[in-house]
Amino acid sequence: MSRLVCVSNRITLPRRTAAPGGLAVGVLAAMRDNGGLWFGWSGELSADTTAPTAITERDGVRYATIDLTQMQYDRYYKGFCNTSLWPLFHYLSDRFRYDHEWHDGYLAVNRLFAARLAPLLEPGDRIWVHDYHLIPLARELRALGVTQPIGFFLHIPFPHIEVLRLLPVAAEIIRDLTHYDLVGFQTEADERSFRAGLARVYAGDAPRVRTGAFPIGIDVDAVIAEAGAAMRTDPVKRMIGGLLGRRLMIGVDRLDYSKGLVERFSAYQRFLERNAELRRKLIYLQIAPLSRDDIQAYSQIRQALEQATGRTNGRFADTDWTPIRYLNKNFPHGTLMGFMRAAQVGIVTPLRDGMNLVAKEFVAAQDPADPGALILSSLAGAAHELDGAVIVNPYDLRGVAQAVAAAFAMPLAERQQRHAAMLAALRRRDLHAWYRGFLGAIDAARP
Ligand code: F6P
């Protein structure tokens, strides 16, 4: 069997706490089950650009990492990846900024990745490149004479061409994706957006490029087992004890403006205003680990959330009740699954999201005999599959506030029925199906 080589901006090194997000979970599962090589940035900055690629090996997986310089990090990661591509791909064009030096840095780091990866490749390898940081990588690898099949998967949304066109190098982004043997997206809507972009850039003369929708899933049985086991652990028991019998709504998101937290907090405040009788009966726990916090837009959103929490708690809290518990710390995955199982309502309201695995995890973590209800943004990829959720538009504060009331009031039989339908959907397209589907399609692209 050919060796699997995964490439991503950041990799999850053994013995480090898992990086948050679907990419880390998905690649780790594919690598653990298939073995192979995972290449990427170490997460460290270093002035020495000539340091050799660091190789470690664990459980059949080889990890190869390189450091970046401060300038590469600033231009490539903070600049082009997370201040140009990230907001634009999430349709948040007011947050989009562009600087040609960032783009130069992006190209330079992709060239560096290719130069460092190429010597590690073997003839029978299958190369799988992940996410928006590395769109030009196939072109760079081909220029170095790499002939092995190369697939690309985008974990975030792909924007419609009319949005992508804000980017001065939009056509290059589209052209670079044609160098892959297969380009995978989370949803068919993303795939259609890319195809519309291709048609625009090549004006009817587009090269043949294989595309597909491969919605990422979760390891359903692993989450069920983790959530069940976590209920007997100290952190989960303490959290439940702290509720003093009150009902719980939970949100778990990286602290990112695309997650719609400011809007969610406003909607919750509105819910409290309109539902005085429920006020002291429930608690909203929001876990939001800090992310990319050296980027200005992220420190601003952090401040806005601190103010919003202070406002709501200042206005509604009592000596023995706080309406919002807002935490910036991260928890082990199992503990989070236990928190979710203990909640009556899960709230996931991104302004746009490629998939959102928290929504899927919330469903799998529930007790099927008495499951919680899920409130889910129509603008998350997961909404295409989880139609048993209470679907909301995250900008519609009145709608979200009403959904919170409806979710807490939902009768048991309805919760059970919605949960069973969603769990079946999760099992149809789980994490294993995701990577097997993608790898099978790479093989089919290059028989
Ligand atoms: O898919 C979204 C993504 O950007 C992944 O590429 C990444 O692993 C995750 O979010 C976390 O982001 P970062 O590596 O920038 O902290």
Order of helices and strands: EHEEEHHEHEHHEHEHHEHEHEHEHEEHHH
Principal-axis shape: globular
* Biggest sheet record: 8 strands, mixed
The count of strands amounts to 14
Quickly count the helices: 16
The chain-level structural class is alpha/beta
N→C terminal distance: 14 Å
Q: Strand content of the residues, in percent? A: 15-25%
Report low-confidence residues grouped into runs of 5 or more: none
Q: Oligomer, anyone?
A: single chain
Tell me the helix content: 40-55%
Q: Which hetero compounds are present in the coordinates?
A: 6-O-phosphono-beta-D-fructofuranose
Cα Rg: 22 Å
What's the pLDDT, averaged over the residues?
Answer: 95
Spatial strand sequence of the major β-sheet = 3-4-2-1-5-6-7-8
Describe this protein's structure.
This protein has helices at residues 22-34, 70-89, 100-117, 137-143, 161-164, 170-177, 188-202, 220-230, 234-242, 261-274, 296-316, 333-341, 357-365, 397-409, 412-428, 431-445, and strands at 4-10, 36-45, 54-58, 61-68, 126-130, 150-153, 182-185, 210-213, 247-252, 282-287, 324-327, 345-348, 373-377, 390-392. Helix 3 packs across helix 4, helix 9 runs parallel beside helix 12 and helix 10 crosses helix 14. The two termini are 14 Å apart. The protein has 16 helices and 14 strands. Strand 1, helix 1 and strand 2 form a beta-alpha-beta unit. 45% of the residues are buried. It is an alpha/beta fold and 447 residues long. The strands form two sheets. Strands 3-4-2-1-5-6-7-8 form an eight-stranded mixed β-sheet, with helices on both faces. The model has no long low-confidence stretch (mean pLDDT 95). 6-O-phosphono-beta-D-fructofuranose binds next to strand 1 and helix 1.
